[in-house]
Amino acid sequence: MKARRSGGRTLEFKDAGTQVGPLLVVDDVHTSFRTARGTVRAVDGVSFDVHEGKTLGIVGESGSGKTVLARSIMGLLPPRDVIRSGTVRFAGHELTAMDDKDLRQVWGAELSMIFQDPMTALNPVKRIGVQIAESLILHLGMDKKEAGSTAVELLRSVGIPSPEDRVKWYPFQLSGGMRQRVMIAIALACAPRLVLADEPTTGLDVTVQAQILDLLAELQRERHMAVILVTHDLGVVASRADDIIVMYAGRVVERAPTHTLFHDTKMPYTRALMDSIPRLADPSGVRLNAIAGRPPDLINPPDGCRFAPRCPYAQDKCRESEPPLRTVGSADHLFACWFPLVDGESTVPPVPVSLSAPVAPGPQSSGASDA
Amino acid sequence: MGKYLIRRFLQLLVVSFVISVLVFMLVHLLPGDPTTQILGANDTAANRAILLKQLGLNLPLWHQYTIWLSAAFHGNLGTSYLNHESVTHILATGAPVTIELIIISQVLAFAVAIPLALVVSRKPNRALDNVSTTTTFGLLALPPFVVAPILVAVFAVGLGWFPATGYTPFNQAPITNIHEMILPSVAITAGSIAVYFRLLRSDLITTLQQDFITMARSKGLSNRRIMWRHAFRPSSFSLLAAAGINIGSLIAGTFVVELLFALPGIGYALVEAVNQRDYLVVQGISLVVAIAFVVIQFIVDFVFTIVDPRVVRE
User: Fold this and answer.
1) Rounded-to-integer distance, Cα A151 and Cα A285, Å
2) Fewer CB atoms inside 10 A, N or C side of chain B?
3) Best residue in A117, A125, A230 to probe B by mutation, most B CBs within 10 Å?
4) Structural contact between residues B286 and B78, judged by C-beta atoms closer than 8 angstroms
5) Contact in structure between A199 and A67 (CB atoms under 8 Å)
6) A233-245 b/e with 16+ CB inside 10 Å = b?
7) For residue B230, what is the nearest residue in chain A, using CA coordinates?
8) Which residues neighbour A357 within 8 Å (Cβ) at sequence distance 6 or greater?
């Protein structure tokens, strides 16, 4: 399927079978934005890798830098006022060293993206069939007719009923869930090897969320794709990711295989994220365990551990020096904490931090950013 | 789509009816009546009474209106009492001039404004954008009667590239005709370019921030394709609406340029007729111009259904 490729410029991609090492290697990626207030360090030194066919979950609160990280991997950043460093290697190619012209051969073909809001990520004035066929014509060199019938098949494969008629529809004629299916069809059209799904279900209601995630997982198995699932919801990745990265304030604070992360949580922040997942078993009226305070200001991040101002176990050491990403015991479990939890319990007593009490989150009231 | 257009067409009919009443009344609201001028030295009360009766001006207004309207439907808008040409004939000779002027000026305006907006909107606030934005701001402030003499001074008198005045019908000598029409068209174009460029530029800048543009990039589409196939259409709604109004108002608004370049268009004919109180000519031209305006709005509504599929179905 990959043999045909339009245009004279062709990038050689190693076959899946001969691939040595990980499909994607992200090494010390920094992405900052110049703003009027100063430089926002949205992604501040992130490294990880993803193997062929695997699923990586990237989890964090809003503002933790996960979306910027996803865009940095793609190379889809605004052209101006961006400072970036670090390398992204994908299928043996250094994406960070490629210009837009070369990247365009990778985008949509080998590496594609599913966007957060299906309401705004489809072109409102183009028929969905055309929006799917576009990549097929561009990357696979299909003619219009072939691309049209392939678009119908793709719509069928993402579970859209009567796809022969729907290809002619416009996005506004479809529900949110249907639009997200269309977006998945677009992302998967050229059988990419890696799909970056940036909060693919945030804009959808809960029942539809599960359907979309199951669909994505099913297509992933069929096509042997790797998926990076970016979400603020640990519950979303708990049963779907092979590995999970937890991000806080532009950094990776914990990284482990999913089972390990849930059963041997080291980082109090990860623990807090887990505790904030609502449970059906809870009696009604129980307060949700929201994490007090707000993520720090990324223009002037606090010294020491960036989570310390909101951490109930923070010690002086935490506020003074930043914990490195390290391992204890198993090599694939990394965390950045001076006082990691043991069996889910802290080894230091909780300190009554003012922020451990519920605080009305507001730009000035939190105090988290000026600690 | 059919339903939407039928509704628009009914609106068009209602508006046209109101226009016809207003145009008819307008002339009757002006002080004085045509008998004074027609009679000249023979202006006596008796003569006037006879003439009023001959012209049907003694009938009740509504009756005059129905006579006028039914004649208008038969292509008879009356006769100029000055040179005894039929109003239909005046329109038939003037309209091609004005229409050609509008077509050339608008094609030029789109040909300059659209590519320029597509180029600068990708990198707003850079040198080219600043130059274009400032220049078009200046153009907005320059009415055709200022632009026209400058164009004549430079390109006709100075460089001698184009004739300063004159009109040859297109079917007699197409090349000469186009040659003569260039300067007058450019004189009108300036304002249109400014409006179209500025509207499209700002809408494009907004569109380019949209998720679906990032999505299009993530598919690996070229910048050219993204600009033309993804960004242009959803950014063209205000441009289209403005073009409709602008073209409509140019039908009667070209008269300054027609006057300056001695082009026998309908704008010129209208102003002439107003000066002479040639009231049937004023009435006839006003009616046709106003209806042309409404028809252009209808065409714009139709184009909207093609450009934005949501218009029809929402």
Assistant:
1) 48
2) C
3) A125
4) no
5) yes
6) bbbbbbebbbbbb
7) A123
8) A292
Q: Which residue has the tokens 């500025």?
A: B198
Query: To which residue do tokens 């009474």 refer?
Result: B49
Q: How far apart are CA A215 and CA A213, in angstroms?
A: 5
How many Å apart are CA B4 and CA B306, to the nearest integer? 12
Beta bridge partners, A34, equal A39
Is A186 close to B219, i.e. CB distance below 8 A?
yes
* Amino acid (one-letter) located at A157: S
pLDDT, one tens digit per residue, over B104-134 is 999 999 999 999 999 999 888 888 999 999 9
DSSP state of A111: E
Triad B156, B157, B161: Cα angle to 5°:
35
Total count of residues recorded for chain B: 314
Kind of pairing between the strands at A111-114 and A194-198: parallel
Encoded tokens for A348: 């230091």
Cβ(A293)–Cβ(A359) under 8 Å?
Answer: yes
What are the C-alpha distances in Å from A131 to residues A13, A124, A125, A184, A232? Answer: 25, 10, 10, 12, 28
Query: What's the pLDDT tens digit per position in A312-354?
Result: 888 889 989 999 999 887 888 999 999 998 877 788 777 655 5
Residue among A125, A139, A186 minimizing CB distance to B308: A125
Q: What does each C-alpha distance from A185 to A159, A179, B42 come to in angstroms?
A: 10, 10, 86
Place of tokens 């719509």: A155
Q: Which domains does chain A have, with CATH numbers?
A: 23-241 (3.40.50.300)
**Contact call for residues A261 and A324 (beta carbons, < 8 A):** no
Q: How near does any CA of chain A get to the CA of B105, in Å?
A: 29
User: Which pLDDT value is given to residue B124?
Assistant: 85
Q: How confident is the model at residue B161 (pLDDT cuts 50, 70, 90)?
A: confident
- Measure the CA–CA gap between B305 and A227, rounded to whole angstroms: 40
Alpha-helical runs (H) found in A98-162: 100-106, 128-140, 144-157
Question: Which ranges of chain A would DSSP assign to H, the alpha helix?
Answer: 66-74, 100-106, 128-140, 144-157, 163-166, 176-188, 206-223, 234-238, 258-263, 268-275, 316-320
Strand A82-90 to strand A251-257: parallel, antiparallel, or no bridges (unpaired)? unpaired
Domains in chain B, ordered, with CATH? 2-73 (no CATH), 93-313 (1.10.3720.10)
Task: Answer yes or no: do A121 and B310 touch at CB < 8 A.
Answer: no
Query: What's the distance, Cα to Cα, between the start and end of chain B in Å?
Result: 11
Q: What angle do CA A76, A80, A81 make, to 5 degrees?
A: 110
Whether the model clears a pTM of 0.80, i.e. scores above it, the answer is: yes
Residue with tokens 């994607």: A24
Q: Is B214 close to A124, i.e. CB distance below 8 A?
A: no
Q: At CB < 8 Å, which residues of chain A contact B?
A: 74, 76, 79, 100, 103-109, 112-113, 115-117, 120-126, 134-135, 138-139, 170, 172-173, 183, 186
* Stretches in chain A below the pLDDT threshold 50: 1-9, 14, 16-17, 355-371
Q: Is A45 helix (H, G, I), strand (E, B) or coil?
A: strand
Cα–Cα separations (whole angstroms), residue A314 to A59, A131, A304, A318, A364 = 22, 51, 10, 6, 22
CB-CB neighbors (< 8 A) of A104 in chain B:
220-222
Beta-bridge partners for A90: A24, A93
Count of residues making up chain A: 371
